[in-house]
Amino acid sequence: MEKIKVHFLGAAGTVTGSKFLLETSDLRVMVDCGMFQGVKALRQLNWQYLPVDVKTLDVVLLTHGHMDHSGWLPSLIKMGFKGKIIATRPTLAIAEIILRDSAKIQMEDAERANRDAFTKHAPAVPLYDMDDVELTLTHFQSIKEDNEVVLSKRVSARFLNSGHIIGSTFIELTVGTKVLVFSGDVGRNNDPLMHRPLRPHQADVLFIESTYGNRLHPVSDAKAELRDLIVETVALGGTVIIPSFAVERTQTLMYLLWQLRKEKAIPDVPMIMDSPMGGHVLNVFRDNPKWHTLSVHDCEEMCQQFQIIGSFKETIEQVADLRPKIVVAGSGMVTGGRVLTYLQTHLSRKQSVVLLAGFQAEGTRGRRLIDGTKELKFYGKYYEVNCRVEQLDGLSAHADQRELLDWMSELREAPKQVFVVHGENQAADDMRLKIEETYHYNTAVPKLYDIVELDL
User: Fold this and answer.
1) CATH classification number, 222-395, choose in 3.40.50.10890, 3.40.190.10, 3.40.1160.10, 3.40.50.10840
2) 18 contacts 32 by C-beta, under 8 angstroms
3) 30, 266, 320, 433: most buried, per Cβ within 10 A?
């Protein structure tokens, strides 16, 4: 009988901060090491030491490179982790981009807070800096998709394409004769750029995400909705501001806008991609063509249709030019990045529109915009919201409830235990009920810092 202890150190009772620690007889392995995002109480957790001895961890496995799955790695290193960080090649490339960007933003925010004196801390400091990131990168080790990675005498892992973003996988962790499956984030069956997710066939224990565990994505034509919104906004003399996740969402939006431009379905106004990180991600797409459906030729032709902003000086020039344009800028939940500079001007403009094109976690500025806030605080000031705010649901890179249930459908035998993670409380509990109703599996929703002992 296998005895395994599981520590739920993140993505339990919340979408963000994904971290799961497994203790086996000969290995201590962490799956994902994400940063908490959203409400202040969650963000403050990023500054706390984990309730485990980090120095005893042997290895970290990453499902993919998003901030909420990899963004806390430098903190783990600072706390004494010495082992390898293993993932697919594109995942590590994405993680490197995200960590460098995160450190840069944190350092700039701390500098701005100290300079403009809108901090309660004396002085404000970043959670980690660029030196911490450089040290973290020395721990990276890439593996090939679907190849078995031997971690110890009794433990091995396989990384299988989950179709969420470039390089994303679910992880099959084999301990002796038992298999534990970590879904990571599961993608869509009909994503414009990603391949269809593979599915697990065996899982003695399943950890499944529930970002959209209580929702079904609308049956809508995102491309047509995007077209109509652009036509209406440009006719009014406004600008379309699209806060976007730099990984996959920015590339998907660029693809759809390129298609609309080719079809002459939208006005011939400038199309701006203002996300340094998004530009770096385009290079990851170029370097890893087997991980997506976009051809090399189409990728290059798409990029040529956009003015890709490099320096912040160029951003200021674009903001000052109030002629109609389409701007895709980071970050996706409006938590930071270049999009805030555009919003300083365009939140007050009734003719402009902010189009949110992805999941907005509780406590983020993006969620507040969706919920109808009349003012938004950033850079120590409040900005009045007079512009139009819309949401484009059809572009989500997360499977909805039906697709998550479908993803589980090829399991040959019932898991002994299913843990529903990576979802807000209502979404996770609704997903639990739906799994029990559909498959009659033993299903639970863990809480943050729960410890569960498994006898398999």
Assistant:
1) 3.40.50.10890
2) yes
3) 30
Find, among 209, 169, 188, the residue nearest to 89 by Cα.
169
- Residue pair 395/222 in contact (Cβ under 8 Å)? The answer is yes
Q: Is 384 exposed, middle or buried (0-12, 13-18, 19+ CB in 10 A)?
A: exposed
Given a cut of 70, is residue 308 above it in pLDDT?
Answer: yes
Pairwise CA distance, residues 336 & 315, whole Å: 14
Structure tokens, 241? 């501001």
Q: Convert the pLDDT of each residue in 134-185 to its tens digit.
A: 999 999 999 999 899 999 999 999 999 999 999 999 999 999 999 999 999 9
Cα 187 from Cα 174, distance rounded (Å) = 23
For 419, phi then psi, to 5°, come to -110, 125
Beta strands in 71-177 (DSSP E): 84-88, 140-143, 149-150, 155-161, 169-175
Q: What is the pTM of this model?
A: 0.89
What are residue 29's DSSP bridge partners? 22, 59
Domain at 3-215+397-455, CATH class = alpha beta
